[in-house]
Amino acid sequence: MATEPLLQLDLPGIPRLKSGKVREVFDLGDSLLFVATDRISAFDCIMPNGIPRKGEVLTQLSHFWFAQTAAFQPHHLLARAEDPLPPRLQPYSAQLARRSMIVKKARPLAIECVVRGYLAGSGWKEYRARQTVCGLRLPPGLTESSELPEPIFTPATKAESGHDLNISFAEAARLVGAGRAEQARAASLKLYAFARDYALRRGIIIADTKFEFGLVDDQLVLIDEVLTPDSSRFWPADQYRPGAGQPSFDKQFVRDYLETLSWDKTPPAPPLPPEVVARTQAKYLEAYERLTGRKLA
C-alpha cells in the first residue's frame, strides 16, 4: 500500500497530451491513458503536498460507476479496472496501478453537466440573492442544504483555469446545439437519479455532481471521472441537517484549514499539515468503502 503521494508522473516514450490539476493524459495512439495523481487543489491552487491514494479512490470509484451505469449510458472506458496493462505500459505498472484508465478518444462537449439535488455552494448563493439557480426559479423558503423539489440540470462553462461559470440552459444549447444539450440534460438527470438512490441506500447523500460527455462516432458517451468526491458533494445521510452547511466526504478539511490561515489564496499554496492530510485521506477512503462495499485493495 502506497504511503507517499504520487504528485508527478513521467512515462518516457509515451506522449503527454495534457496535465490538469489532478490528471495526466497520455496519447496511446488509438486511445488515451488517464492517470489520476494524488494532487489536491483548493481555491484553484494546487497544494504542494498531496493526499496519498486519492488518485486511486478517484479512478476506482469511476470504474465502479461506469460499470454500474453501462446498461443505460455508454462510456469511454476501453479496459476494466482488473484488466492487465498493455505491454508498452507494463514497465510503469507500479506507478499506474489502481490509478489509470485506458479510454476511447472522444470529442468533449464544451459544457460541464451539473445536476443539483440539494441547495449548496454557488446555487445557494444565487438562490439567496434571486431565488433562482442558473436562472431557474425555485420555491420560496428554502434554506442552505435543502433538498430541491426535484433535481435540476445547471450547466456550466469549462474553464481552463479558475472556476467554471454557471450558465443557462439556453446558453448551453447555443454552445453545443439544442439537440445535444437536451440529450446531455436527459442523460445527466438519469445518471444522477440512479446514483442518488444507490448511494442513499449506503448512507451517502449525493447533493450535486458534475458529469462530462463527449462524442465518439456521433454517439454521446460519458467521459472523464464520474461520481467521485472531487466531482460531487457527498454528505453522510445520518448527519444531514438542512439549514446549514453539511459535513462531507471530500476536501472540506483542506478548505477549512486554509480558511484559518492568512494566505491570500494565490500561488504558492502553503503545505498541508499531516493531520489535515490524514483526515482528508480517511474521508476519501470511507466514501469509496461505503459506496462499493469493499476496502480499496
Mind explaining what this structure looks like?
There is one protein chain. This protein is of the alpha+beta class and 297 residues long. The protein folds into two domains: 1-105, Phosphorylase Kinase, domain 1 (2-Layer Sandwich), CATH 3.30.200.20; 107-239, ATP-grasp fold, B domain (D-amino Acid Aminotransferase, Chain A, domain 1, 2-Layer Sandwich), CATH 3.30.470.20. Helices cover 30% and strands 23% of the residues. It has seven helices and 15 strands. Strands 7, 8, 11, 12, 13, 14 and 15 form a seven-stranded antiparallel beta sheet that branches. Strand 1 (16-19) and strand 2 (23-27) form a beta hairpin. The radius of gyration is 19 Å and the shape is globular. The termini are close together.
Task: Describe how the helices and strands are arranged.
Elements: E1 16-19, E2 23-27, E3 32-36, E4 41-42, E5 45-46, H1 54-69, H2 93-96, E6 100-103, E7 107-108, E8 111-118, H3 121-130, E9 132-133, E10 136-137, E11 147-153, E12 156-157, H4 169-176, H5 178-200, E13 204-216, E14 219-223, E15 232-236, H6 252-259, H7 274-292
Helix pairs in contact: 1-7, 4-5, 6-7
List keywords for this structure.
2 domains, globular, 7-stranded antiparallel beta sheet, 30% helix, 297 residues, Phosphorylase Kinase, domain 1, D-amino Acid Aminotransferase, Chain A, domain 1, alpha+beta, 4-stranded antiparallel beta sheet, 7 helices
